[in-house]
Structure formats: structure tokens, C-alpha cells
Amino acid sequence: MLPRSNAALAARDLAVVWHPCTQMHDHETQPMLPIVEAQGVWLTDADGKRYVDAVSSWWTNVLGHRHPCIVAALKDQLDRLDHVMLAGFTHEPALELAEELVRVAPPGLARVFYADNGSSAIEVALKMSFHYWLNLGRAGKTRFIALTGSYHGETLGALSVTDVPLYSATYAPLLTKPILAPSPDAYEGAPGETPAGTAARRLGELRALLERHAHETCAVIVEPLVQCAAGMRMYDASYLAGLRRLCDEFDVHFIADEIAVGFGRTGTLFACEQARVTPDFLCLSKGLTGGTLALSAVLTTNAVYDAFYAEYRAGKAFLHSHSFTGNPLACRAALATLQVFRDEPVLANNRALAAHLAQRLAPLRDHPNVADVRQTGMIAAVELVRDRATREPFPAHERRGLACYRYALDEGVVLRPLGNVVYIMPPYAITTDEIDLVVDTAMAGIALAVR
């Protein structure tokens, strides 16, 4: 049997695996961490050391690793049906999941289109919106409006509505160009301006854009309430209500990318609920399966569906496809996840956990190198700066967040800062004692990173 230590597995990995979102040269000084087991909020490496997964394994693991309800559902499904294509076939997990998603989603969303991952869901929504207008004879609608600081994935269509240069700049020659609307990010608000005031001002600027560009615009795409990859930028829910009104007024679609913020992250099952709005397209993934298997879904309205429904010779069908669309195992995992939300007081528990997290992070508001401590539900972020008064940032090349990450790993906590933003986004299975461990570690890591 091959050795199964951290060192042995890391050496084998580096010989063959190219990791995502990684400069592989970093692993010459930052050892790879082989994980062999997980339970609840805890990960265990090959040497037996345990770590709190304080970032939910890239924001996917909402209920905790190996949740018994999900594990049981997967074992049961594997004994009956592993996979069948969804073109010309159906199966109970896919249709039952669609029924349940329509039941719990904002009212008016009535159709479910499956894909494999978050970026793929964005591709579906973008193509479906464009194709809808084409089917209605409005071929001039070919562009999309996105927010500054937006991130929607790393396939080419998703990158085309992404405004995080770290991900999109290299591929600019391959991308279509979005129309960028100023983000309602409260951190960037004018001095003395409330988050609601910032949202209102930014809605005025969006209106001006739509007055010029609505005739060529398919949709406005946003991450509701939190722009995650941009540094957990947060904004007031009134922006979503105003956005819905503007989309209706100017006859463009509203695409809500809830891939990261859905399934309880912001305090409600879906972030859009906090503004009482229904988007034309709701994109879901990550927490959809409790973080166990890859699956995404795009929910839309009957009005959109009807624009594609015609005799085959009309050429209006939406022919987008993925081999593993609606995989039965993934759908069963998603059904089990929704069952937990239905049967257990997950959202109520989250409110208590979020309040404890806020209380523990509060002392950082007075730290000389912290410009902002912000939180929406079970997402909290700390903005590190060189100078609190001027908000002068630390130079990116200094990689202050990396120092915090390395310290936290040594202490048994997985934090993965976004540049100079240290965030906490844990599974909902976390306890208050475990939150204390995470916050204490983050505070010590921040002290080390800014010195």
C-alpha cells in the first residue's frame, strides 16, 4: 500500500494535478493539505490533524460535511439509479426537485432547467435571455448590464459579465463587453451616506444607463445582497426592489445569481426574498446539494418558457445541454438538503449564530488596520487596510491575506482571504464555541498579517 501521510500524498499530487485558482509555484513553500475525512464543520488531514472549514469549502457546504440526511439519500439512490440522460428521459429525483424548487422559490418562477455547476447556470441564463428576445423578433438585444465588481464564473460567457480583473483581464480578447453599472456596495458609499442612500443613488445611475441602452440590453445580472468574489461587498436590499421596477419599466430581464448567496446564507432561503422580488432568472448551485455533488439549476417564468414552445420547424428550441444535466444522485442530494431546511429550524438557528458571530467580530471595528467589518447573515468580512483613516489599501503584492491564511492553518482553521479581505462563511452546523475558535484565530492572524 502506498504511504498515506500528508507529505506522501502532497508529493504525488504535485506530480500530476493542476489545482484551480492557484499559482502552483506557491506550493514550493506552502505545502498542499491532503484531506482524508470530513464531518460537520471539521476536515481531517492525512496526518490526523483537524481543521474547522470556516469557508464551507468554497461556500458550498451549507449544512455541514456528510450530513446524515444527505448521506442516506445518496446511498439509497445509488442502489437504484446512478445516471440517465435527461434528453427524452426523466426520473423521479429530477422532477421532484423541480417541483420542490418551484414551491420554495420566489412566486412566479415555474420552470427549472438543470446544469452542472454555477458557471454553467450563468451560461444558461445569459443564452436563454438572449434567445428569448430573439424568438420575440427583437434581435437587437445582444448585451448585458452587470455591476462593477461583479463575479459570475469563469466560463467565457460568465467572464463576460464579470468585473474582477484578476479573473477576466487575461481573457479580455475572447470576451464580449458588458455595460457596467456602478455597484451599490455600501463600503463605497459617500461620506455619511446610508446603505439605502447608496442604493438609491446607484439606482439613479442604472436608470440613466437603461435610458441609453435598454433597446440593446437583454438583462441586468446581479449577485443579490453580497458580491462575494469582489471581497464580500454588501448592499441594501432596496436596490433589488428598485432593480425589479427598472427592469419592468425598460423591458429587460433581471438575472439573480444566487449561486453563492442562496440556501440561507443571507438570512432567508433566497436573498431576493429580502426585497420581496422575483427575478426572471434565478441561478442556483453550491448549497443546492449541501455541497456534496455538482449540480445547478436555473429557474424561470412560464412567460420565458412559452417563448421557446413551438413546432420544431420554427427553430425556437433551447438546445443547450450537458451530459450530466439533472443527475439523479445530485438531485437526491438536493432534495435531502431542502428536506433539512423544511424539517429543521435552520434559518432560525442561523440568526442566533449570525448574532454571535457579529458580537465576536465587533472589537475589530476599532482596529487601526480595519476599515470595515460587514455582515449579511452567515457571511462576515473584515477589510484590512494600511491606514484606517484614508482607507489606503495594502499593496496586493504584499499578500497580507496569505499570511493570515497560513497562520490559521497552523492553528487548525481554514480561512481563505480574498486579497486583503478576511471573511468567515461557515457551514450552518457550526457551534458558538467553534465560532469563537474561528474568530480568535482570525483576529490573531490579522494581527500577524498587518504588522
Structural account:
The protein is an alpha/beta fold and 451 residues long. It folds into two domains: 33-66 and 345-450, Aspartate Aminotransferase, domain 1, CATH 3.90.1150; 71-343, Type I PLP-dependent aspartate aminotransferase-like (Major domain) (Aspartate Aminotransferase, domain 2, 3-Layer(aba) Sandwich). It is built from 14 helices and 16 strands. The chain has helices at residues 6-16, 56-59, 68-78, 92-104, 118-135, 156-159, 165-168, 195-213, 238-250, 302-306, 328-343, 346-361, 400-410, 432-450; strands at residues 35-39, 42-45, 50-53, 111-115, 143-147, 179-181, 217-222, 226-227, 233-234, 253-257, 281-284, 296-300, 370-376, 379-384, 413-414, 421-424. The strands form four sheets. It has a seven-stranded mixed beta sheet with strand order 4-12-11-10-7-5-6, with helices on both faces. The protein has a four-stranded mixed beta sheet with strand order 1-2-3-15. A hairpin with a 4-residue loop joins strand 2 and strand 3. Helix 4 (92-104) packs parallel to helix 11 and helix 12 (346-361) packs parallel to helix 14. It starts with 5 loop residues before the first helix and ends with a helix. The mean pLDDT is 97. Its EC number is 2.6.1.62. One of its GO terms (molecular function) is pyridoxal phosphate binding. It is found in: Cytoplasm. The record marks 21 as: Participates in the substrate recognition with KAPA and in a stacking interaction with the adenine ring of SAM. Pathway: Cofactor biosynthesis; biotin biosynthesis; 7,8-diaminononanoate from 8-amino-7-oxononanoate (SAM route): step 1/1.
